[in-house]
Design a protein that fits this description.
With 180 residues, this protein is α/β, with parallel strands linked by helices. It contains five helices and eight strands; from the N terminus they run ααβαββββαβαββ. The protein has one domain: Vaccinia Virus protein VP39 (Rossmann fold, 3-Layer(aba) Sandwich). Helix 3 links the parallel strand 1 and strand 2.
Length: 180
């Protein structure tokens, strides 16, 4: 992870951004890395500050981060595009892995299935992470039941991995990996 850490620090320094390293992001990167190949293209939907996009870009051929609040930039292996993931079309060609990490809890319930359908065009993996619905101290707009996500996506995908992980007594997450 030294190479990854140096790449992230360079990225944030060059762009005068603040590096928000959290236990959750470090754990997510360690879980995701097993699903990213060196020739893969990754789409990070709702990328936030871009930490995960930058982290996976070191592991793959290229990463695209999408978010409303991101500053549009193009780098050697990663680019960030400003996009409203609910309202705007998401068409970025041949994508191997789609990441949807800590996003669904901020999407209105009536838009959830539309977003899931939009991002369901991938070659290898769809990786979703959501806060545990029983953790009332986490910041989210609504609770998302992982079983409803699994049931909906299982019509066209296969649940490859489900893991609940806890960072503390008050903070836990549901990590899901789907394949076609």
């Amino acid at each position: 992870m030294d190479h990854l850490q140096r790449s992230l620090e360079t990225y944030y320094t060059e762009r005068n951004r603040v590096l928000h390293v959290t236990s959750r992001k470090v754990i997510l990167l360690s879980l995701i890395k097993d699903y990213i190949g060196e020739n893969d293209r990754v789409l990070d939907v709702g990328c936030g500050d871009g930490f995960i996009s930058m982290g996976v870009s070191v592991l793959c051929r290229g990463a695209i981060g999408l978010d409303r609040a991101v500053t549009e930039t193009n780098g050697k292996r990663v680019c960030f595009l400003q996009c409203d993931i609910v309202k705007d079309p998401i068409t970025y060609g041949n994508i191997d892995t789609v990441l949807l990490l800590d996003v669904l809890e901020h999407v209105p319930r009536e838009d959830e299935r539309g977003l899931l359908n939009k991002i369901n065009n991938y070659n290898k993996y769809l990786i979703i992470n959501i806060p545990d619905q029983q953790d009332d101290k986490q910041p989210y707009d609504r609770k998302v039941n992982p079983l409803s996500i699994i049931n909906y996506l299982s019509r066209k995908n296969r649940l490859h991995r489900y893991q609940r992980f806890a960072i503390s007594k008050e903070e836990s997450y549901n990590f899901m990996v789907f394949t076609k």
